[in-house]
Design a protein that fits this description.
- The structure holds 2 protein chains of 2 kinds.
- Chain A is an alpha/beta fold.
- Chain A is built from 12 helices and 13 strands.
- In chain A, helix 4 runs antiparallel to helix 5 and helix 5 runs parallel beside helix 6.
- Chain A starts with a strand and ends with a helix.
- In chain B, strand 1 and strand 2 form a beta hairpin.
- The longest helix of chain B is centred in the middle third of the chain and has 40 residues.
- Chain B is globular, with a radius of gyration of 24 Å.
- Classes of the chains: A alpha/beta, B alpha+beta.
């Protein structure tokens, strides 16, 4: 299978600060990859480098092209939403579709207009008259109507209320994703994309600290809720994260045997948000960095 | 490719409709209102026993409405309302001066034209709008973050910037020229209509003459302005380049290196070659435009024109590179 994204040893510095630290990444068609990290972790820089919008050192190939050298050609097969603020205030929906139809060979205007029919957006309404939710819908209509191989979403629902955020991701799955194309999403609201992801990448200080298929998380990570009397025994099993709860302690383990852990309490698969906190807590992150 | 370029031009038009359309239309509306008010004033103050003259003076075009026994009042450079009194036989409705074929006359016209406030004003006004368009066009998308949307489209930055430059240096001046011509044509028609109400018999013929004269006078003037715009592209290009660079103070950023180099040269060497070079280039442009306007093609400084175009190309190339780089 040909990789949609093939990145090796990507490094990027802003002055003396390293924002991408030896990133290696392969993404296959059909994957929905969530890239999660705190502010300044390097998520947006990674996405921009994949889109050819920033220079990085290392080997990078996206959809068979070098993004920096063939950025405009790359955009024939890649769609991109930075956030809702990128649509200019002066443009109308009709103008946006006119323009896209003229410059983008894979833009299907009928599809975009069909999508807008289910919204309150009128063709001649300017972006400056639209609510943030409407702007997102317009941008989504644009993206859905482009038959791309790769969709890159950088904090696409930033500033939207929860209903709009859910609607956005539902539309993405129903109207865009067809198991042949690939989606890359960065977000802070990890719990909202958890159900749609096939793979998750945690990034911290420019370094990938976790890169795992969602289906493998269940086998690899275990969350244990236990009583205070087991604390000593459980901590000998080297949890990656521990947290005091009302009834005792909660631990997260990486690669531990579930049968061993089950004798100390209730076990389950941690939520992505809990795993994110576990992986990026200062102690765990330091250990992972050393391991890398 | 043509479809893509046309879409880029449309995008520039949608985004800068104000400076590309509404501003010249606004000026046109003001001028037409003033002329209309003048006509109505003349008509209502007495019987409009006046003449309307479209006269070629100093290479420019003037329209005059005259009445009996009153002194001429100059309204502006293009329009003159005066009271001199006129009967049907007195003067033609619209008359034109004759262009002298002699070279001396041409040279004299050039001298007059060079001090013609209409040319100076038109040149400055056009330059202001070109610079306003360029600085907005090359920086607004970064300021409102829409550059990320445009860069998500399969359009190269080269095409993007070249269309912006073509809009500034060609489309904008042509739109202004077209609106100027239409405005002048409307003035001629308005004046003729005013006379028609006074039952002047040969108004149709005179109107045709007036249009012919107007176009023969004003079109060379517009071409001359367009040549001047192309001559000045290195200066506009420099401002466009500065506007592309992330920063808010475009005017200061553009002026600072020029003032800085001039000052350093003066302090170290005690000379003013750099500032003189710029001033001479602008003056040479004006002179070449006037030579071109008078049909003296051989007198145009093509070498300097070519150097200017090459400098412009360097500025445009740098602008493209900055816009590619600055998204970082």
């Amino acid at each position: 299978m040909t990789n949609i994204i093939q990145a090796r040893h990507l490094n990027k510095f802003y002055g003396k600060q390293q924002v991408l630290n030896n990133i290696n990444l392969q993404v296959n068609p059909g994957e929905i990859v969530g890239i999660v990290g705190v502010n300044g972790a390097g998520k947006s820089t990674l996405l921009k480098s994949l889109l050819g919008l920033t220079r990085v050192s290392g080997d990078l190939n996206v959809c068979g092209l070098n993004p920096r050298q063939a950025q405009d050609k790359l955009m024939q097969t890649v769609s991109f939403i930075a956030d809702t603020a990128t649509l200019p205030k002066w443009i109308t929906a009709a103008q946006l579709f006119d323009y896209s139809e003229a410059v983008h060979p894979k833009f299907n205007r009928n599809l975009a207009e069909q999508f807008l029919e289910n919204t309150e957006i009128k063709p001649n309404m300017r972006v400056k008259k639209m609510s943030k939710g409407m702007i997102t819908q317009l941008h989504l209509a644009l993206v859905i109507a482009i038959e791309s191989d790769l969709l890159v979403l950088d904090e696409p629902t930033l500033g939207l209320d929860i209903i709009r955020r859910k609607a956005f991701y539902n539309s993405l799955l129903e109207d865009y994703f067809d198991h042949n194309n690939t989606i890359l999403i960065t977000t802070h609201q990890i719990e909202e994309i958890e159900h749609i992801l096939t793979r998750v990448i945690f990034i911290d200080n420019g370094l990938i600290v976790l890169d795992e298929q969602i289906e493998n998380l269940e086998n690899r990570f275990i969350q244990l809720e236990t009583l205070p009397e087991y604390q000593t025994q459980v901590e000998q099993l080297k949890p990656i994260y521990s947290q005091k709860t009302l009834s005792g302690h909660r631990y997260i383990f990486d690669g531990q045997d579930s049968q061993t852990l089950s004798q100390f309490g209730k076990i389950n698969t941690p939520e992505l948000a809990d795993l994110f906190v576990a992986m990026l807590s200062p102690k765990t992150a330091t250990e992972h960095r050393e391991a890398c | 490719m043509l479809k893509l370029i046309w879409a880029q031009f449309k995008r520039e038009y949608w985004e800068h409709k104000g400076v590309l359309l509404w501003v010249p239309l606004g000026f046109s509306a003001i001028i037409l209102s003033v002329v209309l008010a003048g006509i109505l004033f003349v008509e209502s103050s007495d019987s409009i026993a006046g003449s309307v003259n479209l006269i070629n003076i100093d290479g420019g075009t003037r329209i005059t409405i005259s009445k009996n026994n009153q002194p001429t009042e100059n309204l502006n450079n293009t329009q003159q309302l005066s009271d001199e009194g006129l009967s049907k036989e007195d003067e033609p409705l619209i008359k034109s001066s004759q262009n002298s074929p002699e070279l001396d006359k041409v040279k004299s016209d050039i001298k007059k034209l060079s001090s013609n406030p209409l040319l100076i004003f038109s040149g400055w006004a056009l330059s202001v709008f070109i610079v306003a368009f360029l600085s907005s066009s090359l920086s607004a998308d970064r300021k409102d973050n829409s550059i990320l949307l445009w860069r998500s489209m399969p359009v190269s930055e080269e095409i993007n910037v070249l269309v912006k430059c073509a809009t500034a240096y060609i489309v904008l001046p042509l739109i202004y020229a077209a609106i100027t011509l239409i405005t002048l044509a409307m003035i001629v028609v308005m004046v003729a209509m005013a006379k028609l109400t006074l039952s002047t018999p040969d108004v149709g013929i005179q109107l045709t003459d007036a249009f012919a004269k107007m176009f023969s006078d004003i079109i060379p003037f517009i071409l001359l302005l367009l040549f001047l715009v192309i001559w000045l592209i290195p200066l506009y290009g420099w401002l466009g380049l500065v506007a592309s660079y992330p920063g808010r103070l475009v005017a200061i950023s553009a002026a600072l290196p020029i003032v800085g180099i001039t000052l350093i040269e003066w302090l170290i060497f005690g000379t003013d070659h750099f500032s003189r070079l710029i001033i001479d280039y602008v003056q040479q442009g004006l002179q070449s435009a006037l030579m071109l306007g008078s049909g003296q093609w051989a007198q145009v400084d093509y070498q300097q024109f070519l150097v200017g175009l090459m400098v412009s190309a360097v500025f445009i190339y740098t602008t493209i590179q900055i816009r590619k780089w600055r998204i970082d």
